[in-house]
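Task card 7
Instruction: Convert sequence to structure tokens.
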Amino acid sequence: MKNKNLLLFRIITGLFSAMMLFSASMYFFNYDMVAATFTNLGFPTYIIYPLAIAKILGVIAIWSNKSAWLKEWAYAGFVFNTLLAASAHIGIEDGEFYAAVAGLTMVSISYFLDKKLAR
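Output:
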């Protein structure tokens, strides 16, 4: 059972990590489009680069087992990020909330599997 959970953890966390790294790369390499989206959502554009860096560092924290405390905060940050993204897209009714809901689902599953494997 543990091997099955480990495999599922790696798949879900890998997909979630790819999603976060892709969005961070979009923040760096397609800034104008991301800035327009942030403005449309009502967010300031000066948070784009720090958010991209935080996403990269969060992925590193989740995959490394250096600090359980840091891993907890990385998961918390991703939950806050995906919740805020989903609610912002729902709030302006642009129909683009599906990726955020998928991210929230994946980070939740990853977190609970990580806790299950740690026992």
